[in-house]
Structure formats: structure tokens, C-alpha cells
Amino acid sequence: MPSIPRESKYRPFRPGRLAIHAVLLVLSFLFLLPLILLVSASLSSETDISTYGFTFLPHRVTFAAYEYVLQNPSQIVTAYAVTVTVTVIGTLAGVLVMALLAYPLSRTDFSWRRPLSFVVFFTLLFSGGLVPLYILVTHYLQIQDTLWALILPYLVMPWYVFLLRAYFAGLPRELIDAAKVDGAGEWRIFFQIIVPLSRPALATVALFCALTYWNDWYLALLFINNPALEPLQYLLYQISTNIETLQTSSQAFGVQIPALSAQMAIAVLAIGPITLAFLAVQKHFISGVTLGGVKGE
Amino acid sequence: MMLPGLIVLFVFAYLPMFGIIIAFKDYRAYQGVVGSRWVGLKNFYYLFETDDARRIVVNTLEMNALFIASVLLVALAIALLLKEVQGSSRWLAKFYQSTLFFPYLFSYVIINYFVFALLNRSDGLVNHSLQAVGGSAVSWYQSPQYWPVILTLVTVWKNGGFWSIVYLAGMLAINPELYEAATMDGASKWRQIWHITLPMLKPLIIINVLLSIGRIFYADFGLFYQVTRNAPELYPATDVIDTYVYRTLTSIGDVGMASAAGTFQAVIGFVLVLFSNWLVRRTEPQSAIF
User: Fold this and answer.
1) Which of A24, A69, A128, B166 has its CB 3.0 to 4.6 Å from that of B17, i.e. a possible disulfide?
2) The CATH number of the domain where A175 resides is what?
3) Does domain B37-287 have CATH number 3.30.70.370?
4) Residues B118-129, mean pLDDT to the nearest whole number
5) Residue partners of B58: CB distance under 8 A and separation at least 6
6) What is the pLDDT of residues A231-247, one digit of tens each?
């Protein structure tokens, strides 16, 4: 983002500009509205929801839904553990594998550069679709109901390979040549020169990979039947389609069922980490969008 | 060095490509993909005999066309607004960008929760508001006629901020001297937008729109599956190729029909990508993807 000239910082608000601010403020509020509703419902009692419906502010704030959800947390803890494991392994492995793939493709002295770039690129143009992938994973690889099925299909994402390739290609060539003169091998050049210099691009790709893994429920929907391997998003999906899961487990204890508020509380628990992470690194996220976007993604 | 990445691509991208032959076979799990009997175009024949085929193709194209146009208009409008406040308050400008980008972070599972809080029949905010002003409650999840609008709103909400940041970056890259010269000549803000900002953004807009058109045959599965709660009552408006393939494969278990629909999508999709790239090359040769 280009820096703003000093004097403009103190420019007074003009009426026209004030109107634009008003529009943007309203818009921002509208964009946050669903989130506010969700948080409010998670802090409401079940009776208040059925009397007043979903409201922006809870009529009476109660943590009953969270208490209820965390009273018997094993399912949520397991799902959290699966999601964190998949996100961490998938992101680290994905960034590494994609960077290793992108680096040779960025080197003009690599003679297989063009054909292999096309091999990567073609997967963006054409895909076999769901049926062959499903049969491959369940019938031939037989990795359904393993963490592999949740990680491997997203490991190499061609857009990010090209984003990294473009970034690597922009690094000064002399550095590589100098390192070669000093007798460094290709692996050393990659890990000791290229990787440290490419932190911004690697961080951007890591962020978006992490987001993909954290938010994924699709691979679980296709390939996971074992409750112990259900990621958080998939658990949320099941809860929303099947309120009875919660109800039957609570009837055993003879307590009132905070079905709706409990659902919303679990959703808040699921989006909490990603919201915090976003607040911490929003600058990188937004610059990452422009890094990939303006180049014509 | 490249081996791990190439192996992953080979297994998870190239092997499924060869898997499209399943669409021309009578697939039996015990015989495998290679061993199953060839049946020619029979699966396609069955598929296009159903009413579903027309419905899912029309829905996919209609909804995606709606999404492309609305996201573009809203994202451009937001970007223009954001650009105007860039100079006035840094803190607020950042706040708007972050807030508008925020929905991009949510999965469709979470978005389903949001939409449910708004639309569910008895407790949803929309029905409560309708009743407060004397209207009557609507069973949203049983009324397909509203869903093209609802899903468009959801898509704009989720992706509008993302694309506005892309377009804003494009706008900030425009040479400020152009605006200074225009202001000196007494050009109004509207004229500046119309004669400087939009023309300078044209290449970026064209590429993004053509890329989306290249993918118009692919629906956003999560949007159509999660946000509609997969309600059969809504299928007339919301059943798209991707949800049809998924349902036919997993709940009906008709591999032949599902793979016929999937292969049809893959082939037409491929042709559309090639076509849209050809169009890009004709209009903006330097930004063609290949």
C-alpha cells in the first residue's frame, strides 16, 4: 500500500466525504451483522430465543450454552485436535512441497521449465471431477478414514505454485550465481538463500493454505466416517443437520436442551481462533489478496 | 526437488482425469475402473433423458451469471468508495477493508449458521422483523423462488470484500497525475471515475470476468449444499451440477449417472476455459493466461 502524503492525514472531513464514510460504516455493520447475531444467540437462553427470536443483543446474558457445550467437551476437543493437526501438517507440508515445486520452475536455466510448468498449469484447466477422485481415494488408495484423505488432496494448489514461482523469479539472479561460485549445492541455495528472502510470499501462501484446511468439511464429508477423525467444520455440519445428536445426549442427563444456543456457541468456538488469527495478521492477508489478485488470479 | 509435488499432482489431479472413462463404462467396484464393461454413451443417454439434466445446467449457468455480475458491481462500488476515503483517515480506511474482507474467512458451514439465524421459520430475525411490521412469516427453506436472491446476497457478502480489495489495489496503482490533471481541467468526480478509473481498470476487470466465465459451469458446492441445508424443497432453484453429482454418487449410488454429469461438466468447462482465454487474448493480449 503506497504511503499517504503527510498533509492529507490532517485534511478535514468534507461533507461529500462524510457521506462516503457513512455509507461505508453502514456497509461494515451489515457485513458484521450475521456474526453479531450468532454471538448474541450463543449468549442467550433457549427460552429467550424462542420468545424473541434471534436478536442483536441478548435479552439476558447467560453462558449456559457454553457451559453446556463444555460440560461434555470430548467430541469438540477431538474435533479441534483433528482440525489443528490437519491444518498444521497440511500447511507446513503444502508450503514446502509447493515451494520445492515452484523454485525449479522459476529458474530460467532449468530446461524442463516449460513442459513441467504446463503439467502444473493443466490441472487448473481440466479436472476429472468428483466421481474419479472418490473412487480413487476409496477404492484404489484406500485412505478413507485416515488423516491422509484430509490432507493430501489439497497439498498442491496450482495458483499458489505460480504465485511462488513469480516471486522466486523476481529475486536477483546474482545471489544464486554467487552462491554457486562459493560451491553451494541447489538444496543449500534453496533453503539458505531463497527461503529466507521469500518470507512474504511463503507467509501469504501459508495463510491461505491454513485457511483452506481450517475451513474444510468437504473432504470429511466425502471420506470420513470415523467420529474420532471428524474435523471441527464437519462436526458443525453434522450438528446443524442433526439437532437430535445433541438432544439425545442431553436427555440422558435430564437437563433442558439448549439446542439452538448451544449450536451457536459451538459455531462461535469454531470461528474464534480464525477471527483472532485474522485480527493479528490482517495486514498480510490483505496484501496477500493483492499479491495473488492483481496478477490476474 | 520437484518430485513430491509432481507425485501429488499425478495422483490427485492426473489419475482422476483418466478416471473420466468411468462415464463410458458400467462401473462395478469389484471389476475396477479398467475391468468394467464399456457401454459407450449409455450413461449420457440416461442422464439427458431425465428432467434433472436441464434443470441442473440451467440453474448452474443462471446462478453463476447472477453471481459474476453482482459481485463485480458491488466490489467495484465498494472499491470506489474505499478509494475516496484512502486519504482521509488511515485507521477508518483499514477498518472498512478488514471488516468487508472478514466474511471471506468463513466456511459455508459457518455461513449456514448465519443464514439460519436470519431465515429460520420460527426464530429467524427476518421473520421476526416481518411480523413486527405486520407481515407474515415466510417458510424460507421451503420457498425456492427466493433463493436466487438469497444465494446472490450470500455470495456478494462473502466475496465482495475480497474482490473490492483486488480492485482497490488496481485503482491505487493508477498514476495520480491523471487525476490531478483532470481536477485542474475542472472534471467532476463522476467524470474522473468514468473517464479515468474505470478505463484504467478495464484490463483487470476483463480478466477477472472472463476467468469467472471460464468457470461458469462449476458451481460452488458449499454454497449450494450447506447454505440451502440441502433442502429438497429448494432443488428447483438450487440444484446445480455439483450437488447433483454428489447426491447421485453418494446417496443414490448411481456411479454411471454421476460420472456422466461430472464428465459433461469437465468437458464443457474445459472448452469454456479455452474459449475465455481466447477472448482474453483477443482483447488484452498481454494478460492472456496461456
Assistant:
1) A128
2) 1.10.3720.10
3) no
4) 88
5) none
6) 999 998 988 876 545 54
Q: Is residue A14 part of a domain?
A: no
C-alpha cell at B167: 480492485
What residues of chain B lie within 8 A of the CB of A32, using their CB?
A: 99, 102
What's the total number of domains in chain A?
Answer: 1
Domain for residue A43, yes or no?
no
Closest CA to A75 of A222, A243, A246: A246
Q: The whole model's pTM is what? A: 0.89
* Residue A40 in domain: no
Secondary structure in 3-state letters for B93-107:
HHHHHHHHHHHHHCC
Residues A37, B204: C-beta atoms closer than 8 Å = no
C-beta of residue B64 within 8 angstroms of C-beta of residue B146:
no
> Which residues span the domain enclosing A155?
76-297
- Mean pLDDT, range A92-96, rounded to an integer: 97
Q: How far is A35 from chain B (nearest CA, A)?
A: 7
**B136 Cβ under 8 Å from any chain A Cβ:** no
**pLDDT for the residue numbered A256:** 46
Nearest residue, CB atoms, B169 vs list A187, A264, A293: A293
User: What ipTM was reported for this prediction?
Assistant: 0.90
Neighbours of B132 (CB within 10 A): 9
Inter-chain residue contact A215 with B101, CB threshold 8 Å: no
